[in-house]
Design a protein that fits this description.
It contains 5 helices and 5 strands, in the order E-H-E-H-E-H-E-H-E-H. The mean pLDDT is about 95. Helices cover about 45% and strands about 20% of the residues. The radius of gyration is 13 Å and the shape is globular. It is an alpha/beta fold. A 5-stranded parallel beta sheet has the order 2-1-3-4-5, with helices on both faces. It starts with a strand and ends with a helix.
Length: about 120
Amino acid sequence: MSIQNILVVDDSKTELLFLSDLLSKNGYKVRTAENAEEAFRRLGEEKPELILMDVVMPGQNGFQLTRAIARDPQYSDIPIIMCTSKNQETDRVWGMRQGARDYITKPVDGAELLSKIRALG
């Protein structure tokens, strides 16, 4: 399966703009959500082939949201890449335990992110 549709979940408008621009310019269809509630609404509207997930967000954080998505039979097949400023090894391990397929730290290196997406697709 080739990845075409990506949901970016981040509470930072700057990050949403940067990631949306990067992905769109590389041929991906991008939808965004600024929190967990909005992310679940987007999932219900159109199932993406990949989710890029921030960790530090108000309300439900990215670790909790990743766990909820990974445990939901309707969405558990969607790969999630954590995309966060949390750069400790313990954070990476915890993110992977919650169900993430990969982990990238901010500031995001565009080439690295695109490489990780291609590896999944």
